[in-house]
Amino acid sequence: MKHARADFPKDFLFGVATSSYQIEGHGFGGAGRTQWDDFAATPGNVKNAENGAVAVDHYHRYPEDLDLVAAAGFDCYRFSTSWARVMPDGKTVNPEGLDFYDRLTDAMLERGIKPCATLYHWELPSPILDMGGWRNRDIAGWFADYTQALMGRIGDRMYSVAPINEPWCVAWLSHFMGYHAPGLRDIRATARAMHHVLLAHGRAIEVMRGLGMDNLGAVFNFEWADPADDSAEAAEKAALYDAIYNRWFLGGVFKGAYPEKVLEGLGPHMPDRWQDDMALISQPVDWCGLNYYTRKLIGPDGGPWPGVKEVEGPLPKTLMGWEIYPEGLYNFLTRTAREYTGDLPLIVTENGLASPDVVKNGKVDDPQRIAYLDAHLDKVRQAIAEGVPLKGYYIWSLLDNYEWACGYEQRFGLVHVDFETLERRPKASYHALAEKLRR
Ligand code: PNW
């Protein structure tokens, strides 16, 4: 790796991220069924119909995994907690679930790792989905109760907390595009989910303030949109893509307002009196997290609203087929600070890639990952040099894991996992980072 800890401000935090359903293993320890178990069981939704029942068995192997976080010299561990483990029916507490997150928290602290929690990384309890899931306004109250139960137990030891991982994925990807659970393609469901997910964010922040917690934030996934050609149509479509993907959620949380051009399409389907919720949604938070992977090229042609069509870009791609475009990270860091968050601390809460691992003589080489991280860290340094209040950079992910609709095919880890034996083996990128991060 080109960059070392010494190249960053003294208090800059390096971290590594995971999520509960992608690593823990599910369906035991009193945990309930989730929408991803249901979604994966329907053929065609997930590669090989794979699910997170075993994942990488982090539930039992977390001491070894946290040892890896600590040994690399990471300051922070961004993990998520499973609603369905804490409340199997979405409403009733499972003491075993609370005990697990209590142990996990203490295991981080014992190793000098800062616990950075996310309360929802997509494993909705199935009984909540049966009641409408994100389409039902009541979800915000149920989510607040879950927040209270869990943070009442571990909140005193959290370094930072964000309620929701990637509201765009929760709402648009899952209710409009149908790529993620619950797999809907329905504009009315989408409009409701786009609003209720931020309402749940607001309610959870309110609950945690009530518990006296601070360092609370919001985590968004961003994709830079470039027009595919010089036409006015392509520019307009790229701007609409940007408004749906990025500006809806930033606007909601930091301005208390949604972009007009998205409301033109979603407006007729929005829940009644949604405007009354905007003060709760835009209450102050302490930091803003950005997950960044790629950009999209948007063509001039349309169809029915929103009529946004992605076209294939010319840049080198990762195994996911995502273009490698570090400039997009720079663009988001500078634009977010300039237009939305001002002096508020920003954190890159995810950045990384799926890349081919070359396993030879017991070693795992992943040169593409090292190059990708270096290229993005260049942009991180450039943004900091220009005054962006960026306070940390977390890599997705610690371990190869369950990559949602791609099943176990795509490997995002710094640590290779043999999915048969579940043996962990640090990749070359892990060793390279460890050498640069040790204090
Ligand atoms: C993020 N998209 O998800 C998530 O936070 C992780 O759980 C996930 O493993 C990681 O990125 C890599 O995919 C995304 O289709 C999943 O645009 C899909 C999209 C964006 C983000």
From TrEMBL:
Keywords, A to Z, come to:
Carbohydrate metabolism, Cellulose degradation, Glycosidase, Hydrolase, Polysaccharide degradation
Single annotated GO MF: beta-glucosidase activity
Catalyzed reactions per annotation = Hydrolysis of terminal, non-reducing beta-D-glucosyl residues with release of beta-D-glucose
What is the main EC category here? hydrolase
EC number, as in UniProt:
3.2.1.21
Transmembrane spans = none
Does the keyword Lipid metabolism belong to this entry? no
Q: Which domain of life is it from?
A: Bacteria
Active-site residues, record numbering mapped to chain = 350 (nucleophile)
Spell out the family assignment given in the record's similarity comment.
Answer: Belongs to the glycosyl hydrolase 1 family.
Protein name stated in the entry: Beta-glucosidase
What organism does this protein naturally occur in?
Tropicibacter oceani
